[in-house]
């Protein structure tokens, strides 16, 4: 397995322009994320055709290669070994005023093009704050589900408190990690961001009064931590631009923590707490009054968010709902998108029974899809084919509408932690009507998503030539696509 990862990493490096073109490498659950010096040096056609590569995503900040869960961590480790150690920064070359002006104009134009969609860029940056936290969120979420299951069954009573402590410790201090990552993402000192955000969860804030009421430790949650660290970053930058070296060492960190901390205590924690309460109230109202419609929209639109890499921006909402209500009602609805994707992939597998390569891809990606990791199926199956991506969205919409309709009848389904979806979400389910009802409703939603995704794809996703793979044609009767190089009669041209 390590040999395969090493070989894949070695094959990837020249296709992205070589080691000199790679500024940094990191990974999330399924993607190798690269910061490249010159994207024109990437051989994207060869990259997409490389065995093991499930897709490529290019956004404003990074070049992302979809490798799939489990694989991406090993390949990233081998890829980083192929990169040279960073050399000490060289002093800037002496240039003329005209050269500096020309370079500044180029940078300004490049930044203008990159920031053409401010909303999308902001969502990506927020997502990048939380992406490094996903492994801990998944691990703690699964431990929380196991602890809850053991408590309900009455098994291992001596071990259950230990598991609960392990699962809860990270969530209790998540504000510190959010602050650390926010400062790093927005150009501040990470430890100062963590220090400013730590006040949100410090027990001593209960002695502070803001807007006529005592603060509560954790008030505002990750939203307050995000705002506090962002403010701290701007205060730090302001200070560093004005203080000389000696004073900078002493005054900048002091003023950063002081100014940002006071504003956090007396303004941001209260404001973020109000926003968090509003999010919980809005989610409850939407599911109680428009559950089927809300589920249809959320389940149907989640795959495009995954395709764009913006789905991680929803993590603050999930975390806020867990803090407010004990579970997030959004995650089970969004998980229906994965069900539609699995159903669509199964239909492609049945219809294209002679396409050995595609069927092999589907077989390798389906286990991850059943566990809610949909990117291998998106970039390896549905998106390249075209129409199956839309029919997969239809399956997700149907599953979301099913779960949302039961929420309108008092059978709300939520997840007690952020973690895997698909069938792996069952241990994390909770609801007002009890875990058994929550599991039944969620399971019914998955089956609905599978069925609708399968039928929509089987009947509409591969008809004609618009939704078939490149290099394939339909048979003379317009049935199953046939590879172009397979011998056999071709339809006569129209007269």
UniProtKB/TrEMBL annotation:
<dbReference type="GO" id="GO:0090588">
    <property type="term" value="F:protein-phosphocysteine-N-acetylmuramate phosphotransferase system transporter activity"/>
</dbReference>
<keyword id="KW-0813">Transport</keyword>
<keyword id="KW-0418">Kinase</keyword>
<dbReference type="GO" id="GO:0008982">
    <property type="term" value="F:protein-N(PI)-phosphohistidine-sugar phosphotransferase activity"/>
</dbReference>
<dbReference type="GO" id="GO:0016301">
    <property type="term" value="F:kinase activity"/>
</dbReference>
<keyword id="KW-0762">Sugar transport</keyword>
<dbReference type="InterPro" id="IPR013013">
    <property type="entry name" value="PTS_EIIC_1"/>
</dbReference>
<dbReference type="InterPro" id="IPR050558">
    <property type="entry name" value="PTS_Sugar-Specific_Components"/>
</dbReference>
<keyword id="KW-0812">Transmembrane</keyword>
<dbReference type="GO" id="GO:0005886">
    <property type="term" value="C:plasma membrane"/>
</dbReference>
<dbReference type="InterPro" id="IPR001996">
    <property type="entry name" value="PTS_IIB_1"/>
</dbReference>
<protein>
    <recommendedName>
        <fullName>PTS alpha-glucoside transporter subunit IIA</fullName>
    </recommendedName>
</protein>
<keyword id="KW-0472">Membrane</keyword>
<feature type="transmembrane region" description="Helical">
    <location>
        <begin position="158"/>
        <end position="180"/>
    </location>
</feature>
<feature type="transmembrane region" description="Helical">
    <location>
        <begin position="255"/>
        <end position="273"/>
    </location>
</feature>
<keyword id="KW-0598">Phosphotransferase system</keyword>
<feature type="domain" description="PTS EIIC type-1">
    <location>
        <begin position="124"/>
        <end position="470"/>
    </location>
</feature>
<dbReference type="Pfam" id="PF02378">
    <property type="entry name" value="PTS_EIIC"/>
</dbReference>
<feature type="transmembrane region" description="Helical">
    <location>
        <begin position="285"/>
        <end position="310"/>
    </location>
</feature>
<dbReference type="InterPro" id="IPR018113">
    <property type="entry name" value="PTrfase_EIIB_Cys"/>
</dbReference>
<feature type="transmembrane region" description="Helical">
    <location>
        <begin position="389"/>
        <end position="408"/>
    </location>
</feature>
<feature type="domain" description="PTS EIIB type-1">
    <location>
        <begin position="6"/>
        <end position="89"/>
    </location>
</feature>
<feature type="transmembrane region" description="Helical">
    <location>
        <begin position="330"/>
        <end position="352"/>
    </location>
</feature>
<feature type="transmembrane region" description="Helical">
    <location>
        <begin position="186"/>
        <end position="205"/>
    </location>
</feature>
<feature type="active site" description="Phosphocysteine intermediate; for EIIB activity">
    <location>
        <position position="28"/>
    </location>
</feature>
<dbReference type="InterPro" id="IPR036878">
    <property type="entry name" value="Glu_permease_IIB"/>
</dbReference>
<keyword id="KW-1133">Transmembrane helix</keyword>
<feature type="transmembrane region" description="Helical">
    <location>
        <begin position="129"/>
        <end position="151"/>
    </location>
</feature>
<dbReference type="Pfam" id="PF00367">
    <property type="entry name" value="PTS_EIIB"/>
</dbReference>
<keyword id="KW-0808">Transferase</keyword>
<dbReference type="InterPro" id="IPR003352">
    <property type="entry name" value="PTS_EIIC"/>
</dbReference>
<dbReference type="GO" id="GO:0009401">
    <property type="term" value="P:phosphoenolpyruvate-dependent sugar phosphotransferase system"/>
</dbReference>
<keyword id="KW-1003">Cell membrane</keyword>
